[in-house]
Amino acid sequence: MALRSQLLRIVSNGQQVRYIHELKSMERAGVEKLRDVLEDRLKEIKRAKTWKHERVITSPQDRTVTVKGAEGEFLNFCANNYLGLSNHPEVVEAARDGLAKYGAGLSSVRFICGTQTLHKELEDRLTNFHQREDTILYGSCFDANAGLFEAMLTPEDAVFSDALNHASIIDGIRLCKAQKFRYPHRDLNELEHLLAHSEARLKLIVTDGVFSMDGNVAPVKGLRALADRYRALLAIDDSHATGFFGETGRGTEEFCGIMGAADIICSTLGKAVSGAAGGYTTGPKELITLLRNVSRPYLFSNAPPPPVVAASMKALELVERSNELRERLHQNTKAFREGMKAAGLTVAGDDHAICPVMVGDAPKAVELASGMLLKGIYVVAFSYPVVPKDQARVRVQISAAHTQEDIKKAVDAFAEVATNIGLIKK
Ligand code: PLP
Description:
The protein is α/β, with parallel strands linked by helices. It has 18 helices and 15 strands. The protein is 45% helix and 15% strand. The strands form four sheets. The chain has a seven-stranded mixed β-sheet with strand order 3-11-10-9-6-4-5, sandwiched between helices. Strands 1-2-13 form a three-stranded mixed β-sheet. A three-stranded antiparallel β-sheet has the order 12-15-14, covered by helices on one side. Helix 9 (167-175) links the parallel strand 4 (158-162) and strand 5 (179-183). Helix 4 runs antiparallel to helix 15 and helix 6 (117-130) runs parallel beside helix 15 (306-321). Residues 140-142, 166, 168, 208, 212, 237, 239-240, 268, 270, 279 line the site of pyridoxal-5'-phosphate.
């Protein structure tokens, strides 16, 4: 008997208990097939050793965390909490005020009845922070990237994307109908070759400002020069730079000494700037107006919740108020990189708080991260396909919340564990 009529019969008999019991024991053919298919795929993920183990944190995100099933506190070296604002008292207080004043959420997308004064204030503040013409807020930077290319580019246009760009840029580009070109990581020569041979109407170069697996920086000056030479646009995803990279935290273009280099900046509020959630695109006002009208993650998804918006606004205020947190982050990063080098370990990247400790062999990277955990230091190993084969690493992320003692403790622990597992030869 068909499942639906069987269920109806059971319900109409009023046999609630039997109904639930039978529902549990009946497997729909489609679900049964799905389980078969997924079982194989899940086995494949395990075989490839790319299974993601999620540790459950039982404390706020901070310099130290507690983890379910483990005793004591861990020094946290794997969050994007660059400025230590995720649990900053002023940020938490602002979120609480936002909740009290504006409620938990909007139950609406922005253009129906989901725009509050708070959203407009944050957009204005970001516009001012980046010295751009206008800004549009999204629920996340993933959404900002997913909603940019399809809205902006047509088949007459072309997009040129760094091979190591973030997944959200890759997915955003997949959704658009423009001509698509991928240039080798940070390779200006190859990019120039592609630009020179393109007759597209609009040409958009897009790059991460800082690449999250390597902690290295896009060649912004060279990219700007090429954009100018070939009448192209430059978009930078500054998720790993906004708020803390560059002298005043204006991001990669400031770090590279070329403020205003990007025509479009997409960034996140989920890392240095409050660490709660949210993303945005800032740039020419016509583009932002177009995005408000046609960008799908903006049009078809709920407005960011008021406490989250209020937290980001306060975090941005702290970013602008003083250089103290940025300076502390810089000192911590310098001490970590120098200490690791002195210990005989290789840290990749360009003077950034993302410090990939290079290992090479994937099981060794896991061994190193596990050894660090046993010493009370929370770090994570990354291996293929997240990073290239034979370039497994333990990614360390430094925060302004760390003390110099924390940094020393981490360096000493790395030196000891790396020696014990044979990564450093005595
Ligand atoms: N872009 C880059 C470069 C990122 O590293 C991330 C987050 O990992 C994102 C975008 C997505 O940011 P969000 O968490 O706001 O969606």
